[in-house]
Specification:
Elements lengths: L12 E3 L2 E3 L3 E3 L13 H13 L4 E7 L17 H6 L1 H9 L4 E5 L12 E2 L13 E2 L2 H20 L4 E6 L4 H6 L14 H4 L1 H14 L5 E8 L8 H14 L3 E6 L19 H8 L6 E3 L6 H9 L5 E4 L1 H5 L3 H6 L17 H5 L28 E5 L3 H12 L3 E5 L8 H5 L8 H14 L3 E3 L6 H4 L4 E4 L3 E3 L12 E3 H5 L8 E5 L3 H11 L6 H8 L22 E5 L15 H10 L3 E3 L2 E7 L2 E6 L2 E5 L3 E4 L3 E3 L9 E2 L11 H14 L1
Helix pairs in contact: 1-3, 4-7, 7-8, 14-22, 19-21
Bound molecules: NADP nicotinamide-adenine-dinucleotide phosphate and iron/sulfur cluster (SF4).
NADP nicotinamide-adenine-dinucleotide phosphate binds next to α19.
C-alpha cells in the first residue's frame, strides 16, 4: 500500500466549459489505429480502457486537416461530416467510461511521408525523402481555415476539446522557425509574420467552435534545432495565441529531426520541466508539462511546486491504463511504469506497425488479447523469473490461477536485471518493482534460489518453461584467457574491467556495454544536457548550444564480424542516440573483423586481411546468447529466451508470457 499523497494531481481543473476530474492528460500518440475506419472500434476500446482507469483528458493521435497534411498516404484525417459521425463511436465509448477526450489536429507539413507534402518553404527535412511544395499565399490561408474546420468537425463528433499541434517540427513549427520559413509574403520574413499562421488558426477555430469549447495549443518550448525560435519569440507567440482564444497550453520539446534525445530512457526524468515553468510564469492560462514524466510522484511534484497546471503522459498510459486509478487508491506501487524504451510503441509506428507496449502487450489489443477471470483455477508452475516468466506468472495469477514461480538465483529479473545497470536504463528497475509487488498482491508462491526439477514439476496442471538464456562464449583460441569475461560478469559487478577494453559483438548489448564502460558515474543531469548541447533558450535560439565533449573513463574498442555500420539494427527512435553516445565517448568501432586469438597482448584480429592487435586489460564478450531448455518437454509451454535465444528481447518475452497466460 502506497501512502504518498497526490492532492494536486487528483484535483479537478476547468478548461473553458469542460471540467476535468484530475490533472492527468493522456498526451497525443499515434498508434496506427487512427488511420482506418476499420479500426475505430478498437481505438474506442483502447481509449475507453484509459478513461475507465481515471485519466482526466485523453488526446487522440494527430488527425490531418486536409490530405496534404497527412503523416503518410491515407493517414488519419478529420475533413468530412461522415468522418465526424463515425467518430461518435469513439467519443461515446470514452464518455460511457466516464472520461473526456480531445482530438488533435496535426498537419505534418514537410514531415509528411508522401509526395503531396507542403510546407512554408521548399526545404526538404533531413528525415523524409519527399521535398515539400511551398504553400501559396492563398494556400496558407486555406490551410488555416482547414484547421478550424477540422476542429469544428471534432466538436460535432462529440469531442470535448481540440488540441492544435504546434510543436515537434510539424507544419506550424515550420512556419514559426526561420530555419524552415524563408517566405517573403505576409506569412514570413519577420518573426511577427511567421507567427501569423498559428494565430490565424486559433482565431478561426475559436470563431467556429464558440466561446467555451477548449482549444489546447501544443507549443514548442525548445526546438532543439539550428535556426529554431528564440525564447522571446515563444513568449510573444504564447501571448498572441492567448488573445486569439487558446484555453490552455500543452508543451512540446524538440523537433523530430533534432539530434538531441527528448523522450528515450537516457533522458533524465522530468528533464524539461524548467522550460514549462518558464512559460507558466508568462501566461495566464493553464500550462501542461510533458515528456519523460512517468510516475505519479514526479507528476505531483511538478504540480505542487507550481511548475505546471496539468501533466501530460502518453506512453505511461499505454503501459498502464489504470495509472490514475491506482494512484487514487493507494496502489501507486502497483503501477506498470513506462520505461521509455520506445521498442513497442514509437518504433512500431515508425515501421508502419500498430503500436503496443513492451511492458503491457495488451495495449492497442484490448479487444483481442483478453485476460479474463477463469472458471476453474489450475495449478501453474513457471520456471524462471526473467521477463517472460514474470509476465506469465503475473498474468496467470491475475486471472485466478494458483501460480508457483521457480527462480534459481536469489533475485528475480534475469537479463532485465543486467539491463538496468546500463547508464540511462535505470528505469528498467521499475519493471522489476512492478512485478515484485504484483506477485506479492496476487499471492504467487515465489521460490527464489530454487532450481525446479522434474519431480517438483510433476504435480502441476501446466508448466511454463521460461528458463532464459546463458551468454554465448565463442569457440576462439584464448577464450579461456583470464582477461576474457562476459557481459553478465561486467554488468552484474562481478568483474571490474581495467582501463583498456575490447568488446566482442556489437549487438544491442555490445553497444550498451560500451556505453557502461565509458560512462562516468559521477555525471549529473547538467552534464547530460551539456553533452547533448542543450542550452538556455533565453540565450541560445532553439535551446541549442555547443556540446561539451564527454570524458570517457575507459578506452574501448567495439568489434563485430559484419561489415555493416555498428548499431544499424537498433531501434529506429533510439538507435541514433546510442550510436551518438559511442561517438561522443570516443569508442573505436571495427566492422568486418575476423577473430584470431586472445592472449597477453590483447585481442588479435584480421581486418581487411591485415593482422591487428587491440591491446587491452579485458575482453568483454557480448556475442549473443544460447537458450537454456533442460526442462522443455512435450505439453509444456516454452517461452522467452528458452524458446528462441536469437534476437532475444524483452518485448517478445513479455508478450509470450501474457499470451500463454491468456490461453491457460
Ligand atoms: P545480438 O543483437 O544478437 O548481438 C550479438 C552479436 O554478437 C551479433 O550481432 C554477432 O555479430 C555477434 N556474434 C554472434 N555469435 C558470435 C560468435 N560465435 N562469435 C563472435 N561474435 C558473435 O545479441 P545481444 O547484443 O546479446 O542482444 C540481445 C537482444 O537484446 C537484441 O536482439 C536486442 O533485441 C536486445 N537489446 C536491445 C538493445 C537496444 O535496442 N538498445 C540493447 C540491448 C539488448 P557479428 O556476427 O557481426 O560479429
Ligand atoms: Fe513505454 Fe516502452 Fe511501453 Fe513505449 S514500449 S509505452 S516506451 S514501456
Amino acid at each position: 500500500m502506497s501512502t504518498a499523497s497526490f492532492d494536486h494531481l487528483l484535483s479537478p481543473i476547468t478548461l473553458g466549459d469542460l471540467t476535468l476530474r484530475n490533472r492527468v492528460v493522456m498526451g497525443s500518440m499515434h498508434t496506427g489505429l487512427e488511420d482506418s475506419v476499420r479500426h475505430l472500434d478498437e481505438l474506442g476500446a483502447y481509449y475507453a480502457e484509459r478513461a475507465r482507469g481515471g485519466v482526466g483528458l485523453i488526446i487522440t493521435g494527430g488527425y490531418a486537416p486536409n490530405r496534404r497534411g497527412w503523416l503518410k498516404p491515407f493517414a488519419s484525417e478529420m475533413t468530412t461530416r461522415l468522418q465526424a459521425m463515425r467518430h461518435r463511436d469513439v467519443t461515446g465509448a470514452v464518455h460511457d467510461a466516464g472520461g473526456a477526450i480531445a482530438l488533435q489536429v496535426l498537419h505534418a507539413g514537410r514531415y509528411g511521408y508522401h509526395p503531396l507534402s507542403v510546407s512554408a518553404s521548399r526545404r526538404k527535412s533531413p528525415i523524409t525523402p519527399f521535398r515539400p511544395r511551398a504553400l501559396s499565399t492563398r494556400g496558407v490561408d486555406r490551410t488555416a481555415s482547414d484547421f478550424a474546420r477540422s476542429a469544428a468537425l471534432a466538436q460535432k463528433a462529440g469531442y470535448d476539446a481540440v488540441e492544435v499541434m504546434g510543436s515537434e517540427g510539424y507544419l506550424i513549427n515550420q512556419f514559426l522557425a526561420a530555419r524552415t520559413n524563408d517566405r517573403t509574403d505576409s506569412w514570413g520574413g519577420t518573426a511577427a509574420r511567421r507567427m501569423r499562421f498559428p494565430v490565424e488558426i486559433v482565431r478561426r477555430t475559436r470563431e467556429l467552435v464558440g466561446d467555451g469549447f477548449p482549444i489546447v495549443y501544443r507549443i514548442s518550448l525548445l526546438d532543439l534545432v539550428e535556426g529554431g525560435q528564440s525564447w522571446d519569440e515563444i513568449v510573444e507567440l504564447a501571448h498572441l495565441l492567448t488573445e486569439a482564444g487558446v484555453t490552455a497550453f500543452n508543451t512540446g520539446i524538440g523537433w523530430h529531426e533534432a539530434r538531441v534525445p527528448t523522450i528515450i530512457t537516457q533522458v533524465p526524468r522530468g528533464a524539461w520541466r524548467s522550460a514549462t515553468a518558464r512559460l507558466k510564469a508568462e501566461v495566464a492560462v493553464p500550462v501542461c508539462a510533458s515528456n519523460r514524466i512517468n510516475t505519479p510522484e514526479l507528476a505531483e511534484e511538478i504540480l505542487a511546486t507550481g511548475q505546471a497546471d496539468l501533466v501530460s503522459m502518453a506512453r505511461p498510459l499505454l503501459a498502464d491504463p489504470a495509472f490514475v486509478d491506482k494512484t487514487m487508491n493507494g496502489r501507486a506501487d502497483e503501477i506498470n511504469t513506462c520505461i521509455a524504451c520506445n521498442q513497442a510503441c514509437l518504433d512500431h509506428v515508425f515501421k508502419n506497425r500498430r503500436a503496443s507496449c513492451l511492458v503491457n502487450p495488451r495495449a492497442c489489443r484490448e479487444t483481442t488479447l483478453v485476460l479474463g477471470p477463469v472458471r476453474t483455477a489450475r495449478r501453474v508452475a513457471v520456471v524462471g523469473a526473467g521477463p517472460a516468466g514474470l509476465s506469465a506468472a503475473e498474468a496467470a495469477a491475475s486471472r485466478g490461477h494458483h501460480v508457483t514461480l521457480f527462480e534459481q538465483s536469489a533475485q528475480i529479473g534475469g537479463q532485465f536485471r543486467l539491463a538496468m545497470a546500463v547508464p540511462g536504463k535505470e528505469e528498467f528497475a521499475e519493471t522489476l518493482r512492478y512485478y515484485t509487488r504484483r506477485l506479492e498482491v496476487l499471492g504467487v508462491d515465489v521460490r527464489l534460489s530454487t532450481r525446479a526439477d522434474e519431480a517438483e514439476l510433476a504435480g502441476y496442471d501446466d508448466v511454463v518453461v521460461a528458463s532464459g538464456v546463458t551468454p554465448r562464449m565463442p569457440d576462439l583460441p584464448g577464450i579461456d584467457h583470464p582477461s576474457v569475461v562476459s557481459y553478465a560478469d561486467v554488468l552484474s559487478g562481478r568483474v571490474v574491467p581495467g582501463t583498456r577494453v575490447a568488446v566482442i559483438g556489437a549487438g544491442g548489448i555490445g553497444v550498451d556495454v560500451s556505453h557502461w564502460l565509458t560512462h562516468d558515474p559521477a555525471d549529473t543531469e547538467d552534464d547530460w544536457r551539456a553533452h547533448w548541447g542543450v542550452g538556455d533558450p533565453a540565450l541560445h535560439p532553439g535551446g541549442l548550444t555547443e556540446p561539451k565533449p564527454r570524458a570517457p573513463i575507459r578506452e574501448v574498442t567495439l568489434v563485430q564480424r559484419k561489415t555493416t555500420p555498428i548499431g544499424v539494427g537498433l531501434g529506429k527512435t533510439s538507435g541514433w542516440a546510442h550510436r551518438a553516445v559511442l561517438r561522443q565517448a570516443g569508442v573505436e568501432q571495427i566492422s568486418g573483423a575476423a577473430y584470431v586469438r586472445i592472449d597477453d597482448e590483447g585481442l588479435h584480429l584480421l581486418v581487411d586481411g591485415e593482422p591487428r592487435v587491440v591491446p587491452c586489460d579485458h575482453v568483454v564478450v557480448c556475442a549473443g546468447q544460447e537458450s537454456v531448455r533442460d526442462l522443455a518437454a512435450e505439453g509444456r509451454h516454452v517461452i522467452g529466451g528458452a524458446d528462441v535465444a536469437a534476437e532475444l528481447d524483452a518485448k517478445r518475452a513479455i508478450e509470450q508470457g501474457v499470451r500463454v497466460a491468456a490461453g491457460l
